[in-house]
Amino acid sequence: MLQLKHCVVDFMSCVIGNGDDASFCYDSWKDLGPLISFVGDNGPRQLQIHLDAHIVHASQNGMWRMPAARSEEAQALQIALSTITPPSVDRGRDQYLWRNDSGTYVNVFSSKVIWELIRSCSPQVSWDKIVWFKEPVPSHSFITWLAMLSRLPTKDRLRRWGLNGAPECVLCSGGLETHMHLFFECQFSSAIWNCFASSFWPNAPLDLVSIVAWISQNQVNHRSGPAIIIWIILQALVYIL
Ligand SMILES: [Zn+2]
Prior knowledge:
Elements: H1 2-9, E1 12-15, H2 35-39, H3 43-47, E2 59-60, E3 63-64, H4 72-81, E4 95-99, E5 105-106, H5 111-118, H6 128-131, H7 138-148, H8 155-160, H9 179-185, H10 187-197, H11 208-219, H12 225-240
Antiparallel strand pairs: 1-4, 2-3, 4-5
Helix pairs in contact: 7-12, 9-10, 10-12
The structure holds zinc ion (ZN).
C-alpha cells in the first residue's frame, strides 16, 4: 500500500488550501516530496504526527505545530516548513496537480503523459509499423508481434521449457519446429506464402525478418491500398500458421 502511494504521489503535487484533504506524510505537497520518504519511518513519531494525519493536523492557530527537532531530517523539514504558509480555511480545499511532460504540475490529468513518464522505453524497432497499424485484425497483430520477437510457443521452445514431444514441424514433418522454420522455411508455409506473395512480389524472401525488412524499406511510407493489403495478408498467414 505504501509503495502504491509513493508511486502515485511522484506524479502528483498538492497545493495546500485548508489542509483537510492532503496527507501530511504521503502526499507530495512541497519540494521535499512525500515526507515519509524524507524523514523515514520514524519521522512521524519524532514529529508527533500520526501516519494518517492530514496537513491541517500539523498546524495550529495559523502556525506550524512541530516539536523540537531530534534529527537532521526533522530539522531540515522544519526549516523547509518555515518557508511555507500553513493551511488556512480562507484558501479553500487542497488542490491536487498532475505532472506533465515538461516536469511542471498542472490541474489536467493525462493518462498518456503519465504512461510516458512511468514506462521503460525500449529502442524502436524497424518493423513496428508493419505489426501495429490502424487497419489490421488485432489478434493477427498480436500474434505477428510475438512471432517477430520469437515468443510463440513453438516446439523448440516448449522442449526447452521441459515439455516432451516430437520436435518436428506438424505441417511438414521435415524440420524442427522453430520460428525460422514456420515463417517460412517450411515447405507447407512457404507454399502458402508464395501463393499470395507471388501475385505482387516476384521472388519474395522466405524468412519473416527479411520480408518485414523489405516491406519497411519499400512500402512503410507508402500507405496505399496494396501496401496495406500486403501487411494484412502477412499477418493473417502468420496468425493462421
Ligand atoms: Zn514445416
